[in-house]
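Protein modeling request. Please complete all fields; requests missing the sequence field cannot be processed.
Requester role: graduate student
Desired output: 3D structure, token encoding
Chains: 1
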Amino acid sequence: MEKITFLLLIFISVGSYAQIKEKDSTEVMEKKEEFYTNKENEYIKAWFENEVVSMKLTDTVKSEYYKILLKHTDSMTQFGDTNKQLPKDDFKKGLNGIVDRMNLKLKTLLTEKQSQQHEKNFRIILWNISIRKGWHY
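Delivered output (137 residues):
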């Protein structure tokens, strides 16, 4: 099966843009460079930051939002690392389960409108990654 760049990019696209400083930030940056050019990286970062700003989260909610994103995107990465040999459909099913749990957790934190915006943003990220990988997600 293909390298699990798909999950790593989700982690990178969301987790690193959350601007949470983690011990593996150097490794994350290296992997980020492999998938997107610097210019693309800057564009995605600016886009994501603008989307989060448009959600009008309080500082407390924003902090918790990023923690939940980081936790679940890390789970996606771990899932990918331990399930590299799964058939594509099973792999996507496992990934979707993690995304569903993340969205459910975020629904308790966000307003309905914010939750819808988050889900839209995350679908865009998944779509972009699938296009890059040649997958139809």
